[in-house]
Amino acid sequence: MEKFTVCMSTTVPLMNDNIDTDQIIPKQFLKSTEKTGFGQHMFFEWRYLDDGTENPEFPLNFEQHRNAQILITGDNFGSGSSREHAAWAIVDYGFRAIIAGSYSDIFYNNALKNGLLPIILPLDEREKLATLPSNEEIEINLIEQTITTSLGVYEFEIDETWKHKLVNGLDDIGITLEYEDLIREYEENRPVYWR
Q1: Domain containing residue 28
Q2: Residue 103 to residue 89: CA distance in whole angstroms
Q3: Which of 20, 52, 66, 192 is the most buried (most CB within 10 A)?
Q4: H helices present in 98-193, as ranges
Q5: Which CATH number does the domain housing residue 159 bear?
Q6: 159 within domain boundaries
């Protein structure tokens, strides 16, 4: 998993509440168990018109938002089914962080497991962030737990265990490998009960 310490990026506002996993990645694209290839289908029904061309009214299709790595959105983000593909799609598209009012529990944990930082901020702060000029980069500093913008500095909370994992780029396998020497020592010295 890629380490997350500081993210400097422009933002894209999508201030809808209750964006569910079916809207994030529709069911017809869930044919792979690999974590890549889903970004092109993220928000598919909103991003594309019936003829397959981009919807010019959808914010992610605005030229100034194409390289944004921070999504600012509404309440209850990631509700619906428990598909981990939703987090995969967002990461594969290129987002590093989401700033929302709240998240579904399952999506929140899936995001963290995939190196995506889900930040919770109140509506008034998110509304201010959504008004930033499209070319303004903001700084998310996970170590300091701050978001720095031209409008001011905003603080956010995160569980210390998840913070440690993200800052060090540790998924569950990475955590296990931190004990590799102890595991090897145990395996070399464990008693043999068969002959």
Answers
A1: 6-169
A2: 16
A3: 20
A4: 105-113, 123-130, 160-168, 172-177, 180-189
A5: 3.20.19.10
A6: yes
